[in-house]
Design brief:
mainly beta, 22-stranded antiparallel beta barrel, 48 strands, globular
Amino acid sequence: MACSAAAVPSLHAQGLARVEILGRSDRSGGADIQPGVTVLRAADLSRAGVTTAEQALRRIVANQSAQGLSQGVGEFTGSVTEADLRGLGPDKTLVLVNGRRVANHAYDGGAVDLNSIPISAVDRIEVTREGASALYGSGAIGGVVNFVLRNDVRGVELAVEGEQPGHTGGATRRASLTAGFGEIGSQGFNAFMAIDLRHQNALAGKDRSFSKSGIRRPSDGSVLSSRTQGTSFPGDLDGYEPSFQAGCAPPRSVPDPQPDPDSDSEEETCRYDYMRDVDLIPRNRQATLLGHATFALGDKHHGTIEWLRAENKTWNRQTPTPTSMVLPDTSPYWIAGRPSTDFGELGQGGVANWLTVPAGRRSHETRALAQRVVLTLQGAGGGLTYDAAIGHARNTVTDVLRKGHIDFDKVQQAVLDGRVNPFGAQSAAGLAAIQASQLVGRLLRGRGEVTTFDARVGKELWPLAGGALAVALRFEYQRQKFNYDLAPLAARTADPELEFATDVRGVQQVRALIFETSAPLSPTLTLDLAARHERNSDGGRVNSRKFGVRWQAARGLLMRAALSADYRTPTLYEIHAPRLLTQSGTEHDDPLLCQDGVAVDGAPAELVCGRPVLQRIGGPVSSGSRASALRPERSQHATLGIVFEPTKHVVLGVDLWHLRLRDVIDSLSEQAVFNHPGRHASRIVRCSRLSASERAGIEGCLNAAGVDTIAFIDTPIENLGRLQAQGIDLSLAVTSGPTPAGEFSLGFEGSHIARYDFQQERGGAFIKNAGRFAEDMPIFRWQHLLQLNWQQGPWIAGVSQRFKSSYRDQDDSRTVASYSLIDLSLVYTGVPNLTLTAGLKNLFDRQPPYSRQDETLQVNYDPRATDPLGRAFAIRAAYQWR
């Protein structure tokens, strides 16, 4: 039977491979079901029209909402794309290439950027859906994603493909070339190279009906929600909107769709409907180059050298810059009859709050370059197996300002001089002043490096009833280096997120000793054990372990259980993160100056009620503490897996899992601070506590007019509360075998999260998040991937469904609808050496379900879990020369 113990490779046969194959069902139809493991094959991904690693991970049902290219719009994230198994966070999913670490993304060092993975050179993706820190080290709490690259290529293959949406924007073009020669068995070597080029056009918010406006109205014409910007153009003077009586300046500047019924006409405002300025998907270009060579060194030894270079460029576009500047009452643009305030050296006047529309939309280019070289030596002799490798990986990310970012001081001076009009059309002198203030050049640069060495020696000791007892000892060394540099240009921008940023440096060395053993006690029962001891140069020590048992309970029935103690050590960025300010995505009432949504006497409502706040974050070192102030996150993970094969055509897999995580490393959320303002009073920093120079750089303090408003909330990176989660994964594979009508196969994978409870702070109440958007992202209770394939001669056809269940929205007032996409594919191989593939993605042109989430700049839907492209036609042609 396919589930026999003989189907499980021994540790000796694997050379104590770092990626365990825990159970296997080999079937004529090609279906694999393994306890705790999901395998994606390159051929299946190609038929599905997958062109990036990000798209591939969206087909893993254990993967929850994830960071993608869209979140780089409006943020300086380095346009990173990350995996997130179980919704625990990208930093708790370990990503490997050929079983070994690569450099994490250079901006925060928390996780690997999937854009650095050359998908055209991938043979398969192995996903371990359980804790594995004892084997792989820090970060393997939620699971491990291992990209296994091709290692034996002969001949030449050229492939071109394209994807064209049915609506404007977002088209993709791609070309790849793979060429290799040599045969290990007869010639003693194989060498190949792979080149992959991919380009995707931008998809603008205005090009989709569900996102062209931030104002959402149901059929009765009322306002369901309004995600608009309070700073508009034309601007306001101390809260007075001179353009309001004329209806503002539509279509972007519009009267407040949800005005305060208690306000007078003078406080009625214009809002900026910014979604037409925002990209749903930024324009991006990827180029990867992989070189690989394997050499036989005798009968039982071989060495490899592998070099990878991956470049990703992304162009992000968003709204013009919101800013506040002093307008003198001598300016030709002063509004007659308005009261004037003394601003010291700047003279008498008021504060003009305006959006720098004349400067154009802000845009910046992100350049990410990942390079990696690895040399390995493997073999056997004298009853031992060995595997050693030395490698170096580097990830460099640079953000460059392109347009729309202004030099604050230059424009402020032009406003003081009366050249710039914050309230309407510009004169020639005003336009010239604004254009002269444009900031273009490098803003940020991050560089992360990791040098690794590992050596593993294994041996079979003595025979047991089911085979030989095998043991292995492995040593690992890592040296990580991290630099985060802020260019002088940043201090001149009008973006508050950059005003307190500083350079970051960090170096850390890690040494680990790992012991592994496998004991086949009988032909049907095997015990596995792994233990790891790790030390790092910051003074941290951590131990982890994993115990597993595999039992062939009956013919066609395989059971496996595992218990693991896992961990994640703080990253260099978390330890050395600069103290900087970011703006909250949610609006809050000042707990002292706005009671029950009503401003107290003397406090302007527009400054203290329903306002976003600044949030200051930073690591322990930048805050004056020791690096060891951050403790590692620790977890316990238990799994029970069953693979049942009642017939040779049907295989069913069931995995139960439970996880407990403590000492979560994060910043206290803004919601936690404002939900318990008394408990966190010391974290609410008011303008009176800052120096004059600090107050001058914060809009809320500049506009305070004698009221002690909130400058920011202080939420450094620290160890917070706990998290508990559990669920069940289901797998089904059915094959028909050969029939007169062809061969049919059905594949199904589903994941149900029964529990996901977390604490926002140490000792706080547990918040239930399964099926809800409880803090910064939703946790889907149910996700599945269903695939039906048919093959007859040279034809292969397939239909697949990707499904995510409904959930309670961020404001808990409504339910976000479920999300289902149907894809079709057709492959023809009737011409020798030529493979033609056609596909139709999102057959029914399903729009993302409406959501009120405000964690991303995109509105009306959640880009982390859905696809805004709509229906798209894909075609691919690949030709091989042997």
